[in-house]
Design brief:
The protein is an all-alpha fold and about 210 residues long. The protein has one domain (about 1-10, about 25-210). The chain has helices at about 1-20, 25-35, 40-60, 65-70, 70-95, 110-120, 125-145, 150-175, 180-210. Helix 2 (about 25-35) packs across helix 8 (about 150-175) and helix 7 (about 125-145) crosses helix 8. The longest helix is centred in the C-terminal third of the chain and has 29 residues, at about 150-175. It is flat, with a radius of gyration of 18 Å. It starts with a helix and ends with a helix.
């Protein structure tokens, strides 16, 4: 059984990694926060993502999966989420160039990055779609395989993928932030902001034609 649990954890990791590597609002916020705050921003954004996922898993266990996957819920989430992403994108694009990038990473604003992780998760309609389909299927498979241990093995693999990828992105982004003074820094923030704005518009558009 333990070999099967290990293989299930590895499979969960690779499935999670394939999803984490897809460009989206969480990746964009991780890059922008890492430029401003350093390499700790990535893990803190992921922590916010974990909080959103745990909340959603509780709702699924309570039997609210049907409501989460309903057309009405999708429209509300897509509409509100799209507007929120447009707002976040606008604020990122308009953020001023810091006069001095802090050398000490202890200055990271923890609540800001954690909150960004929560917001970019709960405002993304594909977050709910993934958990109502792929995520829920993996949890049921884990229960079938080894009960609560199977579920934990899925979470270890899935969360490990998120933490590994976004920590890596945050690390390399923060190392490059000293090469992005002034104008180049501003251009990078504008690109991140515009991407989120277009993503927000797409979310709203996709819910209207669904």
């Amino acid at each position: 059984m333990w070999i099967e649990v290990f293989l299930f954890t590895v499979a969960s990791f690779w499935v999670g990694l394939s999803g984490a590597m897809v460009p989206g609002p969480m990746l964009t916020v991780t890059i922008s926060d890492s430029l401003k705050k350093g390499s700790k921003a990535g893990p803190l954004v992921v922590l916010g993502h974990y909080i959103a996922e745990i909340t959603l898993m509780i709702l699924l266990v309570l039997g609210l999966g049907w409501a989460i996957g309903s057309k009405t819920a999708t429209m509300i989430i897509g509409g509100v989420g799209g507007l929120m992403l447009i707002y976040i994108g606008y604020t990122i694009a308009k953020s001023p160039v810091p006069s001095e990038i802090p050398e000490k990473e202890e200055s990271v604003e923890k609540r800001g990055s954690i909150l960004s992780g929560i917001i970019t998760s709960v405002t993304n309609p594909y977050f709910y779609l993934w958990w109502a389909t792929v995520g829920w299927a993996f949890m049921l498979k884990g229960i079938e395989l080894a009960g609560i241990i199977g579920v934990l093995s899925f979470l270890v693999g899935h969360w490990g993928a998120d933490l590994a990828w976004f920590s890596l992105v945050s690390f390399f982004t923060s190392k490059g932030r000293h090469m992005l003074p002034g104008k180049r820094y501003k251009i990078m923030m504008i690109i991140c902001g515009i991407f989120l704005v277009f993503l927000g518009v797409y979310f709203i558009y996709s819910t209207l034609i669904a």
